[in-house]
Amino acid sequence: MTTESLPSSTRGRAPKPTTPAELGLPDEPAKAGPRDPAATHIRAKLDHELRELLSREPGTRSGTDPEDLHQMRVALRRMRSVLKTSGALLGDSAESVRAELGWLGKSLGEVRDYDVLIGHLREVIATFEVRDQAAGRRLVSKFVAERGAARRRLTRALSSTRYAVLLQRVAQLTRTPDHEIDSTPPAPGSLAADVRKPYKRLDKAVRALPADPPDDDLHALRIHGKKLRYTVELASSSAKKKQAAQLTTLMKATRKLQTVLGDHQDAVIAAEKVRGLLPDADGELGFIAGRIAEHELLKRSEARAAWPAVWARIDKAARAAL
Fold first, then answer.
1. Total structural domains in the chain?
2. Spatial contact of 24 and 61, defined as CB atoms under 8 Å apart
3. Is 303 among the domain residues?
4. pLDDT tens-digit map of 250-286
5. What is the pLDDT of residue 15?
6. Of 156, 178, 200, which residue is a domain's last?
7. Residue 73 has pLDDT above 60, yes or no
8. Segment holding 58, helix H or strand E
9. Is 284 in contact with 131 (CB distance < 8 Å)?
10. Which pLDDT score is estimated for 6?
């Protein structure tokens, strides 16, 4: 499916954000109890994340607060994770919906990456001497211009027929088909058993790392950790009290890994971006870019020293919960 524009009658004015009611969602969010089928838990999770995505759409369109775009992207990632892990329980269309969510994720991710980079660089530059801050702001302005172009691409995506159809398809997955009569509750720990797959992938990825891992390998590790965290969140909804507490401990550990490896990735990206400016930079701008790169490489080293201890916490928590 290719991105399409809205009909000509709607061009020239900002489309109204989609509401849950327009997608046929009930007034109250779906809920799932311990004795509900596993598919009910998955639909309830999709319902929750779809509503979160819709609530963040207006702020994402306006760009007033970068947090709206961030949370919209998080909701989308959680939906993709749920569909990857358990989407087969919702029917054959789940995988194609997951792929379309990936298309939207790329549009959101491009702007989010610039938001993170610009916010971080402004914080770093604020620590420099006053005489260097004007050059620092000049450096940041180059990325602000690039973000503007990325935001225009995102606005087009959010105003497309493709996006509108995607929302309808996700909403459809939240509904129980009329022919579905399975009322058997999930076996104890059945959703928690799904946690083993992403945990084993993360464990395998850790064991395969060399002593001094490439930056890309640590970024891949962070993605594995994120998928584990989202799977744990879903599993917690049907776990018994003791296991739910163990899964909460595991979730906190995976969140910490995301933070540490996220700091690492942010440092890597920032250093690469400012290096990219050097060929066309004047002396003043080149000096500031060098200072920023040095700062980011130090931050990268700190994250590399910290992540193994965080992984040890994940491994311990996973063994206890699983």
1. 2
2. no
3. yes
4. 999 999 999 999 999 999 999 999 999 888 889 999 9
5. 64
6. 178
7. yes
8. helix 38-62
9. no
10. 35
Whole-angstrom distance, CA of residue 60 vs CA of residue 70: 8
Max Cα-Cα span within the chain: 71
pLDDT at 306 over 80: yes
Report the SS3 class of residue 99.
helix
> How many residues in total does the chain contain?
322
Q: How many helices (H) and strands (E) does the chain have?
A: 10, 0
Q: Pick the more confident residue, 33 or 290.
A: 290
CATH number at residue 40: 1.40.20.10
- The Cα–Cα gap between 73 and 107 comes to 10
b/e 227-253 (16+ beta carbons within 10 angstroms → b): bbbbbbbbbbbbbeeebbebbbbbbeb
Q: Which amino acid is at 109?
A: G
12/45 Cα distance (integer angstroms):
36
Q: Which domain holds residue 206?
A: 187-322
Looking at this protein, which amino acid is placed at residue 6?
L
Three-state secondary-structure class, residue 215? helix
Per-residue pLDDT tens for 163-217? 999 999 999 999 987 665 455 555 544 556 678 899 999 999 999 999 999 999 9
Amino acid identity at 271:
A
Q: How confident is the model at residue 160 (pLDDT cuts 50, 70, 90)?
A: very high
Distance CA 311, CA 297 (A): 22
Q: Do 37 and 173 have their domain in common?
A: yes
How many C-beta atoms lie closer than 10 Å to residue 226's C-beta? 22
Residue 136 resides in a domain: yes
On whether both 206 and 291 belong to a single domain, the answer is yes
26 phi-psi bin (left φ>0, alpha ψ -120 to 50, beta other): beta
